[in-house]
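During the no-cost extension, the postdoctoral fellow (Dr. R.K.) reprocessed legacy sequence entries with the updated structure-token encoder. One reprocessed record is reproduced below for audit purposes.
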Amino acid sequence: MAGGVAATALRTRRLASQIAAQMLAAIPDATTLRHSLAESIDDPGLALIFPREDGTVIDAAGQPVGAAGQATDVSGTGLAVATVRRASRTVAEVRYRAERAGAEQLLGTAVRSAGLVLEHVAAQARLRAELARPGRLTATDHRERGRRTAEPGT
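Re-encoded structure tokens follow.
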């Protein structure tokens, strides 16, 4: 009987791991998400922007872009901004041309449907920005600091 319980536990863990891997593989990347949202309102210039805690805003690659809430396209024309919020925190901004009739409603529906994916893409962008930050201490730096403080006479 104990063998059956252990086998069931092992199968359960293996199944959970397989399901998690399948779900992560099914999550679209930032490019696919941006393309899908852009198609929903026929705006190939649609952009996904992610605010950081320090007030800067970044793109999906973690690179800095124009200020939050302010958007213009290459011609200098103002863009509409749809703010995606979760628990009173801005997760993302979707910047788009609002010229098309109904674009706001269509995009609102698409963004609500893609909410969790947007959060995932935003977290990835913030991580990329953090990893690229100049002056960031790496794991090696932390180990070296630990060694220096642990050595006598330092």
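The chain has a mean pLDDT of 81. Residues 2-26 form the longest helix (25 residues). The remaining legacy entries will be reprocessed before the final report is submitted.
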